[in-house]
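Final report, closing paragraph on structural work. Over the funding period we assembled a curated collection of sequence-structure pairs, and we close with a single example.
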Amino acid sequence: MEWIGWALAVVLAAVSVVTLMRKQRVPDDTEERARADEQLAAARAELAADRGELDQDRAELTARGATIDAELERVAGLTPEQARAEIITRIEHDAKLEAVQSARAIEQRAKQGAEREARGIIVGAIQRLAAEQTAESVVTVVQLPNEEMKGRIIGREGRNIRSFESISGANVLIDDTPQTVLISCFDPVRRETARMALEALVEDGRIHPQRIEEVYEKAQRDIDEKIREAAEDALAEVGIVDLHPELIHTLGSLAYRTSYGQNVLAHLIESAHMAGLMAAELGLDVAFCKRAAFLHDIGKALTHENEGPHAIVGAELLRRHGEHEDIVHAVEAHHNEVEPRTVEAVLLQAADAISGARPGARRESLDTYVERMESLERIAMRHDGISRAFAMQAGHEVRVMVEPEKVDDAAAQVLAYDIAKEIEDTLSFPGQIRITVVRESRATATAR
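Its predicted structure, as stored:
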C-alpha cells in the first residue's frame, strides 16, 4: 500500500506545480497586454500624423493646381470655356477630315466597277445619237427692201407703228441701221408672230391700221399651224401618240424658245432619245423614260405666265392633264427642286445634262459668260489658304492654287468639296464644273 501513498504524493506535487505556473502566467499576460496597448497607441499616433501630412499635401496640390490653371489662362488668354470650345472645334475638324478621307475611299471603291459601266452606257448613247452641233435661234430682225419702208412702217404721226405694237404686243425698234427693223418681245411665240406679220406687210406694201389687223390675224393662224405641226413632228419622232391635245400646242410653242442658245424643242427630242438609249442599256421601261424626258421642259413655255421654277410649273401642268405620277415626279425633280425618288428621275437628270453639256449645244452672251467666270473665281477666293484661282475650260473647271504651309493634303480634299458645294448652292450653270485644288511645295537654295 506504500505505492498508493507514493502515487498520491506525486499527484499532489503535480497539482501544486500547475497551480504555481498559473499564478506566474497571469502577470505575464498582463504585461503583454500593456505592451500591445502601448504599440497600438503609438501606431494610432503615427497614423494621425501621416493623415495630417496627407491633408497638408492635398491642400498644397490643390493650391498649386489652381495656380497652374491661372497661369495657363494668363499665358494662353483663354478661359476654361474658351479652351473647351477650341478643343471641340479641333476635334470636329479632325473628325471632318477623317470622314472625308473615309468617304473618298468608299467612293473610290464604289466607282471602280460602276464608273466603267456608266461610262460605257453614256458614251454608247452619245455615239448612237447624232445631233447637230449648233442650235437654232429665234429671228427678231426684219430686212427691208429700202429705207423708205421705215417711214411707211412708222406711218403718219406714228399711227402705223402704234397700231402694230398694240395689236401684236411686240415693240418695233427702228434706228439708223440700214434696211433693218428689230422686233422685241419677251414672249417668243408673240415675237415670231409679229415678225411674220411685219414681213407680210412689207412684202404687200399696203401698211395701215386696218391692213395691219388683217395681216396679224392671218399670221396668228399660220403660227398656230406651225406650232401644231412642230409638236406633231416631234411626237412622231420620239414615238408618243397619246398626249393630251392641250399639251400639244404648249409643246409646239417651244420650237420658238431657246435656252442658252439651244432650241428647247430640239433639246427635248434629243433628251428623249438619250434617255431611251440609256434606259434600254439599264433594262428600264424605254417608252416611260422617253416620255418623261420629252416632257421635262414643258414648263418653259409657261414661265412668263406662271411664277416658280419651270420644273415645278411643268409638273403641275402635266398633273392637271392626267400624266402618270411617276412622270410628273421625274419632271419636277430634274433640277432637284424635289429630291428624286426613282431611277427614272435620276436617268432624266443624266439625259438632260448630257444634251445641255455636249460641245456646241448651248451658248451664252458675252456679259453672262464673263459674269459667270468672275463669280466662279470669286467664290473660290473666299476660302482661307488660297493664293490664286482660275476659271478654265469655258467655266467647266476651276483650278485653285493653295498655300502649302496653310493647307495640307487632307484639308485640300475638304476645300475642293466646300467650293463645289458653294458653287452648287449659289450659281446656276449648264453641265458640270470640276474643282481642282493644287498644292505645290518648293524648296530653293543658292550655291555660292
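Confidence is low (pLDDT under 50) at residues 130-139. DSSP finds 14 helices and eight strands in the chain. We thank the funder for supporting this effort.
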